[in-house]
Design a protein that fits this description.
90 residues; Alpha-D-Glucose-1,6-Bisphosphate, Chain A, domain 4; 21% helix; globular; 5 strands; 5-stranded antiparallel beta sheet; alpha+beta
Length: 90
C-alpha cells in the first residue's frame, strides 16, 4: 500500500506530499516527494506532476504507474467511470 504525508496544500494550485510503500525495498514511506501543480487552461486544467528523489532504477516503473492513474483521474474528473481498479501493467 502506498502512503505519504501532505507537506503543502494550496487549494486549486499545489499539492506536495511524501510518497512511498512500506513493503518496497527502495521507495520506502517518506523517501520521495511528489509535487502536483494545477494550472487553468482554456478547456480545463493542466496537471503537472514532478517526482523528486526517486532512484533512477525506479523511474520507468513509476512513470508508467503515474500515467495510468492520471488517465483514470482525467476520466473521473469529467464525470466518467474509469472502470474497476486494476494494477497497471508494464
Amino acid at each position: 500500500m502506498m502512503e505519504g504525508t501532505f507537506l503543502e496544500i494550496t487549494p486549486f494550485e499545489l499539492l506536495v506530499s511524501t510518497f512511498g510503500c512500506a513493503s518496497h525495498p527502495v521507495v520506502s514511506p517518506g523517501s520521495t516527494r511528489v509535487e502536483v501543480t494545477f494550472e487553468p487552461e482554456a478547456n480545463g486544467t493542466l496537471v503537472t506532476l514532478r517526482y523528486h528523489d526517486l532512484p533512477a532504477a525506479e523511474r520507468d516503473m513509476h512513470t508508467h504507474g503515474w500515467h495510468h492513474y492520471l488517465r483514470r483521474l482525467a476520466i473521473a474528473a469529467t464525470g466518467g467511470d474509469p472502470g474497476p481498479h486494476a494494477k497497471p501493467s508494464m
